[in-house]
Amino acid sequence: MTIYDPSLDAHISSNWGVAENFLDLVGDLRVLSDSHVREDSDFCVQSALNLRNAASLMMASSTAGPLKDALREVRAAAREFVSAGGANGVHFEDSSVLFRTAVMALRLIVARQVELIIQVFGMQPTAEVRSILSVIEENRR
Questions:
Q1: 10 Å Cβ neighbour count for 40?
Q2: In terms of CB atoms within 10 Å, which end of the chain has fewer, N or C?
Q3: CA 43 from chain center: how many Å?
Q4: What integer is the mean pLDDT of 35-58?
Q5: How far apart, in whole angstroms, are the C-alpha atoms of residue 70 and residue 140?
Q6: Runs of H (alpha helix) within 28-126
Q7: Do 84 and 93 touch, CB atoms closer than 8 A?
Q8: Is 1 a member of any domain?
Q9: What are the backbone angles phi and psi of residue 122, rounded to the nearest 5°?
């Protein structure tokens, strides 16, 4: 049995465009979907910085609720990734294990927040977004 929540409906209605833009953004970020073997650490740090900045801007234009909470989690994950890499990803250049671990942690957190947004907003994910969600299933194995 589901309980009708008018405040959630209002949240969805007023934040639909922001949620849609966020899914478009994450679907286009290679750091979230490509194999980390092919990734360059400097590129990934820059991509995570872009993700963090975009999440901050989207938070500013969204109302309190599940979307803003998800964006806050994504922003924190991107910040952690950038911190782990150090300036220009220098720590990642020294340790491929640290790099792989940080990339997978970032991808898993973002995937979980993307999944939540899709569920709350009732959106249909694109193929690119579905590839991001595959990290959740891979993590269960």
A1: 15
A2: N
A3: 16
A4: 86
A5: 21
A6: 30-33, 41-60, 66-85, 90-94, 96-121
A7: no
A8: no
A9: 65, 40
